[in-house]
Write a structure and sequence with these properties.
Strand content: 15-25%
Helix content: 40-55%
Strand order of the largest sheet: 1-2-3
Number of domains: 1
Distance between the termini: 47 Å
Radius of gyration: 23 Å
Order of helices and strands: EEEEEHHHH
Structural class: alpha+beta
Shape: elongated
């Protein structure tokens, strides 16, 4: 069994704001927290419903972002469970962090550099003939 709960804590800098954390839970493992980039007024946060009290467009937008966060992470685990993959909470909490790093690592390679890369791969390629290298 796995769940995501969102907890609101008083912000360190200003006591009038709430800082949100997602608490990831899986049976048999210690809980893992993940800080969220969503903040709001502490008066508007309701820990029971794990949502902002809807008073306007801003609160409903924040609630929508929280719902999208939960569904995005739950879909990943449902796929893992369907595949029968063994996973941990740390893998789950950092799943989308790795994807963001890969996107940042994408770079443009010049034609000359690409030729050098292809040349190196062709020179260092291991050939197999009749099961022998």
């Amino acid at each position: 069994m796995f769940t995501i709960n969102i907890k609101g804590k008083e912000s360190f800098k200003t006591s009038q704001l709430v800082k949100l954390e997602a608490v990831l839970f899986k049976t048999g493992y210690a809980r893992v927290t993940k800080a969220l980039n969503i903040t709001g007024s502490i008066k508007d946060w309701d820990n029971q419903t794990q949502q902002f009290k809807t008073k306007g467009v801003e609160a409903s937008e924040k609630n929508k972002n929280l719902f999208e966060f939960k569904t995005k992470y739950l879909k990943v685990v449902e796929v893992w469970e369907a595949e029968g993959k063994q996973w941990t909470l740390v893998q789950w909490s950092h799943y989308f962090n790795d994807i963001d790093k890969q996107r940042q690592g994408t770079k443009v390679v010049s034609v000359c550099q690409m030729f050098d890369i292809i040349d190196d791969k062709l020179r260092n390629r291991e050939r197999i003939k009749n099961g022998l290298f």
